[in-house]
Amino acid sequence: MDREGMLDVIRHAYAARGKGDVNGLVAAFHPEGQFNLVGDNSALHLTGSVRGHEPLLAAFTQFIAHFDFQQREIVTEVVEGNHAAVRSRLVIRHVPTGKVFNTEVLDLFRFQDGKIIELIEYADTALVKAVIS
């Protein structure tokens, strides 16, 4: 898969996430795809790792129900081999409280067979915890 192909998959996944389209988001992942939100699970229960379409569907459904991604600005895209790194600035609304906040995330992707086989996301989990508390 070439650079533009990987970035196209990422952009489609981001667009699905922004629209709240959990099925479209999961479709970007390989059947054995893994998502890992890096952070201290004792501080924020949303952190951790899931693998496979059904667990991804459950996790992303929960994320989308609680966090509305209102705006994404891609700051940096780097692709090398079957890996990509994307830094984004986000405007997010916490759905249960209506609180809106700005943050940045770093997504590290690995691709296999034209799909995301691994996504490791680095986010400000302390900020997220403060917003939802």
Q: Can you describe this structure?
A:
With 133 residues, this protein is of the alpha+beta class. The chain has one domain (3-132): Nuclear Transport Factor 2, Chain: A (Roll), CATH 3.10.450.50. Helix content is 34%, strand content 47%. The chain contains 4 helices and 6 strands, in the order H-H-E-E-H-E-E-E-E-H. It has helices at residues 3-19, 22-27, 53-66, 125-132; strands at 29-38, 48-51, 67-80, 83-94, 100-112, 115-123. A 6-stranded mixed β-sheet has the order 2-1-6-5-4-3. Strand 3 (67-80) and strand 4 (83-94) form a beta hairpin. The protein is globular, with a radius of gyration of 14 Å. The termini are far apart.
CATH fold call:
Nuclear Transport Factor 2, Chain: A
Strand count: 6
* CATH architecture call: Roll
Strand order of the largest sheet: 2-1-6-5-4-3
Radius of gyration, taken over Cα atoms and rounded to an integer in Å:
14 Å
Envelope shape: globular
Helix content: 25-40%
The number of helical segments is: 4
Low-confidence stretches: none
Strand share of the residues? over 45%
Our measurement of the CA-to-CA distance between the termini, rounded to an integer number of angstroms, reads: 42 Å
Largest sheet: 6 strands, mixed
Q: Which structural class fits the helix and strand makeup?
A: alpha+beta
